[in-house]
Design brief:
The protein is of the alpha/beta class. It contains seven helices and ten strands. The chain has helices at residues 37-51, 71-88, 97-102, 149-152, 164-170, 189-198, 213-227, and strands at residues 3-8, 14-20, 23-30, 61-65, 92-95, 111-117, 122-129, 134-142, 157-160, 176-179. Strands 3-2-1-4-5 form a five-stranded mixed sheet, with helices on both faces. Mean pLDDT is 91; it is low at 215-228.
């Protein structure tokens, strides 16, 4: 049975779990509204290893949420994951944070838009159908009253994540539904990590970096200005 350690630190929710063949067997998470990952992450991992009644060497792989999200949170999670991979000689699996967040709810029809707070009125978002197929790539965007109108005008849209509150304040549409208190969690990572493990979809531990969407966009804009 493929036993995987899942680490989620992309937002203020510090979450770790252990899954066997995609099923969560141990979970511990904490969200006090601050970034406490550096203080609690490693102790959480020790606790769930004991709870699952396994040893670290029993793990088949380490899965980590790759972003987008908090720069500091992602660095802490990825650094810890890499450390375990090197020390235990285990493969590294990267899980897209917004994909994982989309799996926190299930719908019969419509679309799911997971949103992560990117400060001010900006969010990171992606769009998924009711089968979790991604129908729009990840973007960093500024929210206003017309955001996502092309989707809202034709179907129900379910917003979730810590960026959904910004949308709730400005988007007023009968097809808009806001799911409160749902954040990226390692409990949604178990199934996704197992699917990647079965496909041998592993990262290069030495060179893997988190997905810093906003930093990339800012850097690209600066480069364009410099060229011009």
């Amino acid at each position: 049975m493929a036993t995987i350690l899942n680490i989620e630190t992309a937002t203020k929710n510090c979450s770790v779990s252990i899954s066997k063949n995609g099923e969560i067997i141990a979970l511990k998470e904490f969200n006090d509204g601050n970034y406490s990952h550096a203080e609690v992450l490693h102790s959480f991992i020790i606790d769930i290893v004991k709870e699952a009644n396994i040893k670290l060497n029993d793990l088949y792989a380490i899965a980590v949420s790759k972003g987008p999200g908090s720069y500091t949170g992602l660095r802490i999670g990825v650094s810890a994951a890499k450390g375990f991979c090197f020390a235990l000689n285990k493969p590294l699996i990267a899980i897209d944070t917004l994909t994982s967040l989309a799996h926190a709810i299930s719908i019969d029809e419509g679309i799911i838009i997971p949103l992560l707070d990117a400060r001010r009125m900006e969010v990171y978002s992606a769009i998924f159908d009711d089968k979790y197929q991604q129908i729009r790539e990840i973007e960093a965007e500024i929210i206003d009253e017309n955001s996502f109108s092309s989707y809202l005008n034709h179907q129900k849209v379910y917003f979730l994540g810590d960026g959904a509150l910004k949308c709730k304040e400005v988007i007023k549409h009968d097809n808009a539904f806001f799911i409160d208190d749902v954040n990226p969690s390692s409990k949604e990572m178990g199934k996704l990590a197992f699917e990647k493990y079965q496909k041998i979809d592993f990262e290069n531990v030495a060179y893997f970096e988190p997905f810093y969407l906003k930093d990339f966009i800012v850097g690209l804009e600066k480069k364009k200005n410099f060229i011009s």
